[in-house]
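Pipeline run #58 for the internal structure catalog. This entry was flagged by the ingest filter as a single-chain record with no existing model, so it goes straight to prediction. Upstream metadata was stripped on purpose; only the residue string is passed forward. Reviewer on rotation: M.T. Logging verbosity set to normal.
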Amino acid sequence: MADENANESSTSKALGLRIQKKLLGKMSSKKIAKTFIDDTSGRVLDRLYSIALERSGKKAADKVLKNCIKIAVKLAILHRNDILSKGDLQNLNEVRSKMRNLCKTIISFHDVDFTYDYKFMNHTLNAICVKITDVLKRHLTDKSIQRVHHVFTFFMDEEFMNEVFNSSSKYRSHLDKLVIELDLLLETNSL
């Protein structure tokens, strides 16, 4: 009888988790994201959206933002429901560390002329993408993994990234605002 109750509880938990992921996957709006994402991270997403909008227009920018939100929300659900293994948690800690270093690097490239290095940025973004994919591939569908790749591919484009970090580019004001938010993200230890 105890095994049967434990089995039912386990089945209920799995069903509840599936429903949460499905519902939140369909309702990936800024309002839903605010439940799982702090204000500073939300403003970082807004700044990335502005850059994507400038680059590719509303439809593409909306898709990038939607995919970012879906990834973040699904990771939060997996984490909050204690679904992640020790290896997954270790990978997420590495992602967090790499993201903090990436934020510092972006700030440095912005503040100090002629320090921008595409190969370094590409390598770092690729490493983060691989770690996130490693965590998600055991828990989510291939479609979710494709979302991760879509977001990273969008921002890893060499020509685009070179333009973003050019001090006289059309993206400069967006990058200025992004750097302010990244600095705050680091100060508040929100990452």
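catalog note: The two ends are 44 Å apart (CA to CA).
catalog note: The first helix runs from residue 2 to 26.
status: ready for reviewer M.T.
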